[in-house]
């Protein structure tokens, strides 16, 4: 059995858009001794986790926690509010929206995909993969559905494959304007904790998220934040389900427990992660990521490359997609960067394979982390023979320096 | 946000039958930095994990790993080999067998429960909860099913609620003797890694297990070990499924990846756990637990109390159920022990609530760990006013001393 | 290079009288990221450490912290208050008192040893190694020193080699009664944090301690708690010194720094250790160890063996020395116990080599930890062929059960 | 008691010239459970450490390990080979050389300082603080010492306060050329493990080092590598000593032990650190640091600032001293960088206070770590109003990209 206690010379720079680098404090929390999940200490832990995670979703309603990774929470959201064979309207913003619709089909639903038509003339990318959700397309489709066969509208808040963040409140308004009873299900797996997200204010019925992005944890725990309507709907749902079923979990949670063994050590780390976010202040966290994302785009522009997101109001604070020139294999660039500079970047997924790479600036990212990643990109692009129009790093430094301030330092109580 | 970095004075003794105490080495492995699950290091990790876990199941066939806790693997085993509405035959050995059949019903199957009839005259406990699987009852039922409506036979290898370990090979023989095509599904969640388990030799089609018992990890990762027949059956299964579906996972595993984000940090710890088991030697591990279990029963007998398992050939090497006298509230005893001696024991579950407690001696347990637990039990029983016929600790010491030997010490390579 | 990430099957039981088992929380604290020892975070840390450690010594005066193990603090105490060639009076309570006097000689002092004369008729051990400090012998010697050549009186508070705790206040009274200006230097390396110790109230001039005993840390940090007189004396001392010199340290400490690089990570763990002690309450900590020590002696008596300490008022709450019968090699017994039961005990040191072993019950020890150790001892003694008159474990359980209570549980703020 | 589990938002960048950032693997090693330092596991550990550290010093002779920080090893080297009042010749390369001579005086030696005369016309800095050891000055002085009163020649290999690395072999040649019996004592506290260092080949008698620089550990452990002559000399030394005395340590080491309690957990981490260095290959490690140092100087030059070291052949691979313009307070710049960018740099020490800052690129530093630090410096210098002649980051990127290669990745066995 090979020893995994590996350590290449020097620090690895993990800048994929998730899993994001796990802060030392959370790694330590993860290694607290496992305790009896039916004992009194555990109930204290459970209560902290449940109230804390609701703060992060900005909701007064229950949040269901699954000892499972994020894809499970996608399935969970659907099976609790649908009946077999139901139609669900899914807006295609990118690869993950597309995967979610495939999942819906596999569990016996009828997903209908809405998307902006056509391809980008320059890049050949689908137009819909370069812009946020177009709420008017959803509204139009819902108005056509006079029989209300569509059970739910599914959208991705922050599309991890492209770096596009959608206006969720506009989707809520579209559904309401259409007078349609469909629930609003939102995937904020990569958004939560780095991009502003307001479950209650935006009228979301089920918000889906995971641990390994803005929450800065390793993968392995995921969430469904609920609304009253979602809970009511779940009581009528005939979709067979057990592990994902909300009812038993909501009931057990009232006593600080779960109907089956929770993943205790991830909960330890989750409490610590929530504490980090709340103490920095959610608004400060969101502002930090907006600033880092702006700096990152300044770099891309200075290089003379194109940002994947074509709609400035939808730029993601979580990651930036960088389109490589037509004759450059983006994965070749990534490989050079990885092998020469110990930096991991995100690959182009699905229809974007080989045409772009993604720079994650989520989670605990700060000015120098981002700049380190940008230096690796700039050197790697040059090594790959990509002709750059200027120094992206210099542009990013100029922006960051001009917007920097004395950082509030946080100490745990 | 409350700080969870708590530490009551002195070491806590965790002797519930899972989660078992996580060895320091595994806690450290859990805290390795999270890496890119699509990068080259990860593929190395995946290959080690997949081949290593197969060794632990003693199988040449694929083992599916879920980034989810054990209950999910129960559901996974069923949804991959059944069609909606299928009948499944489930043998009731205790509370967990019972919960599994409830899960089966919730996901749209028709579970039929087989059990030994009647209650124990002394304790009032169901007879079926004090003995292992009676394969002849299964054979008889299968012979009656001439139309082969029963899709699967489900049994629990080591019943965590009672401390009874069943003879799985006898169930295989019963199915074969009946000439019935039902698959054999076995829950060895609490058995694997502490009790001998042979997926291939015993002819199991799907073995279900989890991380937090004999594998000594925190909860959060679970398994389906497969057979050829199970894989074939899964291709025909019409049960809607996505997260739990084997097909995509088996395919991705061939390239050292998973179709969705795996829980990387648990995989780090899993590699280390497998390494510990393989280096100690599975046979040595099983012998260690058999010896500890015998010592534990010697203690119970010396106290004048009854072991929950009434069938010596089915005594569990993983845990021992201790029946308290009729007038003694077992949970009251547990509370005293917990509060006075910092020792956590398992509660009586379901039909056994308040009538028994469970002593876990699984995972990294050794002579002094077990004896520490037994001293806590003995003192707590006395404090609770239970009249004991002798010192269980003395009996256990006598047995352990007489069977002890110089321990081989293991060092990682 | 061999991998040290070893883990023999099952938990190791470390019951030497130091290093004591390091609680998980302290191991985690030890692994916080190292920071700039001249930066603002560090100054916060320094201030907490300096005020916290004074609380543990029960002093209002400065405590000097050395990034060095305990032996260094012995040397430090001497070199700061003496001149070359000075006489120091050292009371021999055992091996460590003896080593300290050798150290004094090596650094150019003239140690004079005071001890009870004669040997124990039964064991042949020196009488002085079985009893606490006899303050009258010290007083008598000081009275004879009319020229006040004796610069300091050195005594060991808790003699780690024997399990004898001396009455320090009586030594102070003796010095005062003799009207002698000698300083009182006390080694409480193994006492501090487990046995009651009052630097100010007892009138100690220099208290010496280390990290790896009652403070529950690994070895590597040590202390000199000072008095006003000690500080005054140090200003006149002509002993050449630099690393151990108090002056620069005391001055730098006022600004939250040290004159040379402190061992930052040990300071992290030290803050956490102090927090554990203060939150449990020093009185509760001392009472816990007294109770555990009593239980341990009950066990020794029940075995029919002799406790090394022959003076009940001097029984150590930290460790218990167990005298083996004349024909039994104590180290052979220890070896059996270590190899069969994964339990480390203290060896007989110096004049006691092979004649006794030592059971540590310091630091984070609690009822079940101690009982685990006692079961290992009892089984090992039997395996070694030692004839025991009864079960020590049973005796200890009887005592512990009868004196147990619901434990206050501590959570960090 | 305040909780130290602090974590400001985002990763801290520690680029002082020591303590250097402790790699995760070493932090984990530091948290292995403490064991009996007289038991068999410990002896294995000791042997590995002792042979491994000798490889790092490139010596066949013994290396004495102290459970104390580096300043202690300075004192140790002197007290083992001198008699009270001896003369020692100390070459002043900077602040640490100066501190060492103060230490020598405090312990009763007569240090004589040799240095290049005069100050730099531009910066006003002492010429001797901008250049390496001038061996001819040493040779001249030794030739004058016809009575051989000078007991030892003391030089600093890598002067941490300035970023100047001296040619140690030339000092050996100078001593030999003078036919002088003085021992050669070399401080390589900040050099070892990052800068090439050859104890045997260069004819050093005592090499002094510490843990928190190139060895990548926290502070708290230090070293004296010896020569035959040093050992012989120590047998004649009349300097009073105990804690620092080599004799007992060398003797105990032969049995894999120490005469007093070693700092076990630091030894765990030390084994892992040595393993990292040996597996990367010492030559590769040294080449990595030379390349990083060159990149750093390219940045300084591009900014139009001056490197503290004025002698190209003496440029340090460990750190780079950056001289700020006459009207710029270097500590003000450092403060801005620290508060805005979470980056710690070294302050100007002693005579250089406020006139320069130091960038550490020792230990586990790699391309992106260094570039992150340089971006912080460049932005901070601009924020401080320092006029820069160009982008140092761009210059460093150009150099690093042009000299980069696919990195060999290391996995522990």
TrEMBL record, chains A, B, C, D:
InterPro entries linked to this entry: Aminotrans_V_dom, PyrdxlP-dep_Trfase, PyrdxlP-dep_Trfase_major, PyrdxlP-dep_Trfase_small, SP_NH2Trfase/AEP_transaminase
Needed co-factor(s): pyridoxal 5'-phosphate
Gene Ontology molecular-function annotations: alanine-glyoxylate transaminase activity; L-serine-pyruvate transaminase activity
Residue numbers of N6-(pyridoxal phosphate)lysine PTMs: 213
One of the Pfam families matching this protein, by short name: Aminotran_5
Location of the Aminotransferase class V domain: 36-303
Binding locations of substrate: 358
Similarity comment: Belongs to the class-V pyridoxal-phosphate-dependent aminotransferase family.
Protein name as it appears in the record: Serine--glyoxylate aminotransferase
Lineage, opening ranks: Bacteria, Pseudomonadati, Pseudomonadota, Betaproteobacteria, Burkholderiales
């Amino acid at each position: 059995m090979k020893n995994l206690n590996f350590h290449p010379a020097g620090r690895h720079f993990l800048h994929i858009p998730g899993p994001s680098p796990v802060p030392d404090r959370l790694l330590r929390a993860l290694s607290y001794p496992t305790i009896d999940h039916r004992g009194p200490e555990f109930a204290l832990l459970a209560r902290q986790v449940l109230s804390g995670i609701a703060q992060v979703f900005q909701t007064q309603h229950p949040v269901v926690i699954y000892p499972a990774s994020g894809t499970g929470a996608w399935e969970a959201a659907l099976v609790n509010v649908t009946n077999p064979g139901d139609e669900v309207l899914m807006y295609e913003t990118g690869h993950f929206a597309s995967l979610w619709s495939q999942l819906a089909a596999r569990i016996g639903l009828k997903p209908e995909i809405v998307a902006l038509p056509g391809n980008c003339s320059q890049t050949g990318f689908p137009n819909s993969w370069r812009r946020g959700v177009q709420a008017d397309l959803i509204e139009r489709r819902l108005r056509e559905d006079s029989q209300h066969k569509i059970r739910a509208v599914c959208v991705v808040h922050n599309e991890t494959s492209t770096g596009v963040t959608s206006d969720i409140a506009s989707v809520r308004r579209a559904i309401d304007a259409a007078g349609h009873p469909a629930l609003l299900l939102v995937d904020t797996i990569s958004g939560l904790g780095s991009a502003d997200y307001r479950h209650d204010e935006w009228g979301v019925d089920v918000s889906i998220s995971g641990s390994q992005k803005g929450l800065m944890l390793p993968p392995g725990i995921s969430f469904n934040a609920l609304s009253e309507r979602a809970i009511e709907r779940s009581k009528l749902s005939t979709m067979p389900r057990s592990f994902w079923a909300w009812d038993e979990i909501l009931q057990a949670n009232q006593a600080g427990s779960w109907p089956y063994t929770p993943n205790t050590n991830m909960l330890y780390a989750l409490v610590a992660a929530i504490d980090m976010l709340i103490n920095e202040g959610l608004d400060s966290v969101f502002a930090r990521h907006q600033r880092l994302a702006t700096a990152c785009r300044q770099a891309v522009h200075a290089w003379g490359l194109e940002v994947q997101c074509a709609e400035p109001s939808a730029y993601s604070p979580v990651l930036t997609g960088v389109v490589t020139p037509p004759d450059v294999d983006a994965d070749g660039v990534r490989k050079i960067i990885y092998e020469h500079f110990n930096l991991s970047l995100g690959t182009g997924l699905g229809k974007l394979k080989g045409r772009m790479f993604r720079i994650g600036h989520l989670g605990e990212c700060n000015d120098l982390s981002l700049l380190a990643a940008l230096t690796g990109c700039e050197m790697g692009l040059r090594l790959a023979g990509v002709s750059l129009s200027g120094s992206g790093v210099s542009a990013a430094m100029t922006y960051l320096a001009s917007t920097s301030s004395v950082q509030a330092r946080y100490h745990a109580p």
